[in-house]
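Table S2 (text version). Query chain:
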Amino acid sequence: MKPDKVTEEVVDEAFAKHKKVYPREVHGMFATFRLLGVVILLGGYYLVPWLQWDGHQAILFDLPARKFYIFSLTFWPQDFIYLAVLLIIAAFTLFFFTALAGRLWCGYACPQTVWTEVFLWIERKVEGSRNKQIKLDKSPLTKYKLSRKLIKHSLWILLSLWTGFTFVGYFTPILELGESFIQLTLGPWEFFWIFFYAFATYGNAGWMREQVCIYMCPYARFQSAMLDNDTLVISYDEKRGEPRGSRNKKTDLQSKGLGECVDCTLCVQVCPTGIDIREGMQYQCIGCASCVDVCNQVMDKMGYARNLVSYTTLNTIEGKKTRLLRPRIIIYFLLLVVISSALFYKMATRVPLELDIVRDRNALYRETNEGLIENIYVLKVINMDNITHQYKLSVTGVENMKVVQRKSTIIVSSGEMLDLPLSIQIDPADLDSASVSLVFKLVSMETPDVKVEEPGRFIGPLVR
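Corresponding structure-token output:
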């Protein structure tokens, strides 16, 4: 059976040799947004580790000490629930913006896009414009070509190493890391991750580029499930643009039977994934809007209306009414507001102290020589603050109870977990049931606002 045209195209795409994409430089409103995103995101990434806050690095994930500093907040492994909630918020944020305006994340904030923009900028500065790059790659190996390639790749490698060094600087204090790097005394894991992350940056942003977005990123495959006819996507107005064809500015379109597309192919030349937006929606489109900027420039020169290629919806193109505010957008937004508000409230009211009550499982209770009923406990006190605290313990629930502590003072260093054995003795006459509720309260003597309460149970004999 002879394969059809679609099958042949799929086979060709799957097995054809990769052709390098040479994105043409473009200027415009969306290009400015992308540049702003690069400056903010990479500026923050490279600069934040050097900031100091209250005697420590502003953002530091100190794995050996099990401390995670984020400016004035200090988190511990027990606080990983906050990380889980942050990941949920990130997922719903992605769903919200994708349903609203397509692949905004891919086009403006994805690390692959951001670092690729910088690598492309370096390539243009060293090798020249798109046409010069193509001509240089096709030319035989000369001293000039070799020097251009060496300079470009040297700059790429330096930027990649700096990226890897900065990445490790979020886990090892970056000042100490810099000193170790200069003195060649890096630890094996620090050495590994610096060069691993540098290699990944160099390979992904310098060599693979659009192939990461097309073949490796799963988001390109499932994004269509989050789009509908009311989602803002980059589209070509086929009714207005076709039939396309070259012409001069004075050409009468009606007499020539032409649409407004001049078939300059600039929209293809500026695309970082090398697709033709005029062929309709394609999963390879990362939503960078470069084609929108360059097409608007052509329309301005020809005296035509802008937005032949634009951010629009399929319903708008088909002449139907568009609803930007629709149920899925409202639901995503409300979920983001509720979950984010709950997270901020929990973080604002978070107490850097944890108390666990563990009863002795060997015996429910025992009777002392004085005839009192005794329960034995171990209190696990975790100080999650940055300073040492001395705490005062109180237990309520039954009158005239006797609390016997093995340690007279409860002093817990920062990050320490203290096991505090104690026993509670109660006269059987004061027990009105075999199981009584107690409340254990721990208060910092230095900071009274740092306090925690935990419920507990006192077990006694059956009351007759």
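Notes on Table S2: The first strand starts at residue 52 and ends at 53. The mean pLDDT is 90.
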